[in-house]
Amino acid sequence: MRAPFRLFLSPLIVAGALCGSMADAAEPPPAEKGYYEKRINIVGYPIPSTSPVTTTAVSDTKAVLQALRMTGVAYAGMPASHADEAAKTARAHGFNAVIGGGHRYLFSDLPNEKLATNVVCGGTYEQLLRDAKTMSEACHRHGLKFFLHQTSTMVDASLITRHPEWSAVDLATGKPYQNSYGTANTCLNNEDFMSEYFRRLEKLLSEAGADGLLADEIQFFGPTPCGCESCRRKFRDVTELVIPANGSLGGWLYDFTGKSSYAKWLAWRRERVTETLTKIKSLVVKANPDGVLINYLANPSPSAPYYMAGYAIDDFPKHSDVVGYECEPAVTENTTRSELAT
Ligand SMILES: [Zn+2]
After folding, report:
1. pTM of the model
2. How far does the chain reach from its first CA to its final CA, in angstroms?
3. What's phi and psi for 167, nearest 5 deg?
């Protein structure tokens, strides 16, 4: 997650809340280091504080037993013996769950394809199927849960070249939407793209034997997507209102945000994100009746996620079992990030 929050994205923590508890910090796998940037500020109104807060470590036995202590493992291309060793090491260090790293992309079909770094592709889709099963089995042998982490609407530009009709469209410019990660975006309202996404995700979930999924980038990537044909048709069908023309004279702010249809559009985007995540949860449960869906915000303010991404944390309990904020522990003069992660 999530392009509009780029300025304040931080190293991966899934600050999980399984059974109302918490997750540990995990150093991002090497392949994903370029994905994150130092937190600078938080966008929102009122502006949330970013000053350090004092946290209390989990100390009592009951809380420790309930906590999801999760670390990341970059498992792309890992032979079974290495996966077993990685799981064994994670268990020995006190973790009880592994989240897969470095293998997020579902749409690579050609070996050695050159793709944008930030789609975090660890190999072809077929390799992902094999690797995920290998890592999942290794984790289960050592008493660890294994969660998949897959991206969705954030794609490599080559996919849009092959399927230009899948692109999200920027209302402000009328052009295919380019997010700040340097990757391209499809649209969660595009039936053809989502059909292929769901097909690939469902097969992965059914073959991996994972305990759950972090479904990333099910969102709109800023305040101005999306003006694609699917969005226009679906919004009109539901509201009888019209999204202004892409790149129209007067600009996005003038043409749209001063109208009541803008408020309805924001609410409709939120509904579309929620419906899509609910569908994904149904696929998780279909593959594993006890499977969980992980979801989190990169920006812990109530306003920015809604206006930018179509996200409202109030919706999370409708589809997600493990929820939280993406955040970064404070690093003092005498503490390195790797020390914090361990
Ligand atoms: Zn769209």
Report:
1. 0.82
2. 24
3. -70, 140
CA–centroid distance, 311 to ligand 1, in Å, is 16
Q: Does the structure show a pLDDT above 50 at 329?
A: yes
296 CA distance to ligand 1 middle (Å): 22
Half-sphere exposure of 325 (CA within 13 A, CB side): 13
Hey, what's the torsion of the CAs at 205, 208, 214, 220, to 10 degrees? -50
Ranges of each domain in the chain: 3-166+175-222+252-341
| Structural element, H or E, at residue 213 | strand 212-215
Between the CA of 112 and the centroid of ligand 1 the distance, in Å, is 30
**CA–centroid distance, residue 265 to ligand 1 (Å):** 12
The residues pairing with 185 across neighbouring beta strands, listed in sequence order, are 154
Ligand 1 centroid, distance to 303 Cα (angstroms): 21
Structure confidence at residue 42 as a pLDDT band (50, 70, 90): low
Q: Which H or E run includes 146?
A: strand 145-150
- Mean residue pLDDT of the chain comes to 83
- pLDDT, position 178: 80
- The answer, yes or no, to whether residue 7 has pLDDT greater than 50, is no
pLDDT at res. 36: 55
Length of the chain: 342
Separation of CA 179 and ligand 1 centre (Å)? 14
Q: What is the pLDDT of residues 180-226, one digit of tens each?
A: 778 999 999 999 999 999 999 999 999 999 999 999 999 999 999 99
CA of 164 to the centre of ligand 1 (A): 12
CA of 215 to the centre of ligand 1 (A): 19
Which run of H or E residues covers position 341? helix 337-341
133: left (phi over 0), alpha (psi -120 to 50) or beta: alpha
- CA 282 – ligand 1 centroid, Å: 23
CATH code of the region 3-166+175-222+252-341: 3.20.20
